[in-house]
Write the structure tokens for this entry.
Amino acid sequence: MNPFLRRFGAWVFTILLVHAVAFLLVRGARGGPLDSARELPPQVRAALESHYHLDAPLAEQYARALGGLLQGDLGPSMHYRGSGVSEVLAAGLPVSLALGAGGILVALLFGIVAGLGAARRPGGVVDWAVRSGASLVMGIPNFILAGLGVAFFSFFLGWLPSAGSGGPAHFILPSLALGLPFAGQLSRLVRTRGLEVLAGDAVRAAKARGLSEFHILRFHVLPRTLVPVAAFLGPAAAGMLTGSLVVEQVFALPGIGTHFVQAALNRDYTLALGATVLYT
């Protein structure tokens, strides 16, 4: 079989399997989208259940959800009345993409610079600081980093906004909280690869020709570290996407992660199912 067709078939099978499991999980959770602090009159509840087909057998509800998925229709949101799931997710997608891009930029900038600095003088002060800092940011959950960033840069210094999405400044702290743990991993990767390159014959020949250390780092070491960096970006992007769920909640960013968490809390079956499929 063609490798592309095999991968495409595996992708379709994964989507359908996750959709089925997520459907059963959200339906099996206690409570429902119509449960609230205010008790609904029986006639209103019956009308809403009929409108959202919640009164139909479970098999029929799944068949309807599967048919909508195959047609690209994720159905109406049960919490945001009058809005479709696709509309809600489309509105949050630019925010999540901007946050993810900011996190990747932080990871690349801090990770590559710190890794090269550590490889430049192994065992030195910079190397020790980079390895210690990497262990620290990798061991602290991103919501703790978010809280520390808000406390210092927003409340103590007053430099950056603590929440919202009014402009580019609102994405600085969330991007740092999301990207720093990956920057720690990337710095270790770059340091290890950088040490290998610096010990090679090409670097020794460059030093013998009298080239400066900056020239060697830029033109000999950096290009050779970008191959493992490129391989790292795939899993890092997936990790940032899932990690953004908590970060978006902390900073009140109206992205897909926030809608996903709120859908779980509000038992918004269709929105939770649509967000799960989109993340998958």
